[in-house]
Automatic annotation (TrEMBL):
Pfam families: MFS_5 (PF05631). InterPro entries: MFS_trans_sf, MOT2/MFSD5. The chain crosses the membrane at residues 6-26, 47-68, 80-99, 134-155, 175-195, 201-224. This is Molybdate-anion transporter. It comes from Hemiselmis tepida. Its main location: membrane.
Length: 242
């Protein structure tokens, strides 16, 4: 009974927050004046937001269950601490050179790599092996860095390539921020349901893989590749920043 009440409370909170976000967005658009966009842009924006929503959903689904899963595998707090540090450390180290790498090899490819790398990280959660889980944390840290760099870079570059006005880009980022917050709440609810249905702490990680897979399919089928200044300076061997 308490669990039913708890889930009901969170669902009502979700509805309330979504309503508040909608009212805030409506109020802001009313003050600034509604932005008239083209059908082509709306399709472009919707495709990006769908992919971004799936990408962050996969990330948010994992958060509440990482420590609990490690504890269920009977690791000590010291071992769990090492696993977490490995994830944060790999994100820090990899993030240093991520910009130049994505400029050189492509932002679309980088976003696809995010989906694949994070999916592999989720698969490692099925083994109660410290080395395997350590590898998973390193992969997760790498993917985390990609999430908050390559997706934005691809959006900005493609938006400019298509010649859309700058204020339309601001709108997309505004929607993406709202999307991230709403998805975070939805992920908490979905993760709890999946965990209860399958009676497994690994189930939310498997659910995350599904969202990474959907995002990868859309990226592969609908996104075009873009790179940094290497595209502008053909013949120059070095990529550049955003």
């Amino acid at each position: 009974m308490p669990e039913v009440v708890e889930h009901g409370f969170f669902f009502k909170t979700l509805v309330l927050l979504c309503a508040m976000c909608g009212m805030l967005l409506w109020h802001q658009n009313r003050e600034k004046g509604s932005i008239s966009t083209s059908p082509e842009f709306k399709k472009f924006q919707a495709t990006y937001l769908f992919v971004y929503g799936c990408a962050v959903m996969g990330d948010w689904l994992q958060g509440p269950y990482v420590y609990a899963l490690y504890s269920s595998y009977s690791f000590t707090k010291q071992d769990i601490g090492v696993l977490f540090i490995a994830g944060f450390g790999s994100s820090l180290v990899f993030g240093i050179g991520l910009g130049s790498m994505t400029d050189r090899y492509g932002r679309k490819l980088s976003c696809l790599a995010y989906c694949g790398i994070y999916a592999l990280s989720c698969f490692t959660k099925h083994w109660a092996s410290f080395p395997v889980l350590l590898l998973g944390r390193v992969l997760g840290g790498i993917a985390y860095s990609i999430l908050f760099t390559s997706f934005d870079s691809w959006l900005i570059s493609e938006h400019n390539r298509k010649g859309f006005p700058a204020e339309w880009l601001n709108q997309t980022f505004q929607y993406a921020t709202i999307c991230n917050g709403v998805v975070a709440i939805m992920a908490g609810q979905l993760g709890a349901v999946v965990r209860d249905v399958f009676d497994s702490l690994v189930a939310p990680f498997d659910a995350a893989v599904v969202f990474f897979g959907v995002a990868a399919v859309v990226i592969a089928g609908y996104w075009v590749e873009n790179r940094g200044v290497k595209e502008v300076r053909e013949g120059d061997g070095e990529g550049g920043g955003v």
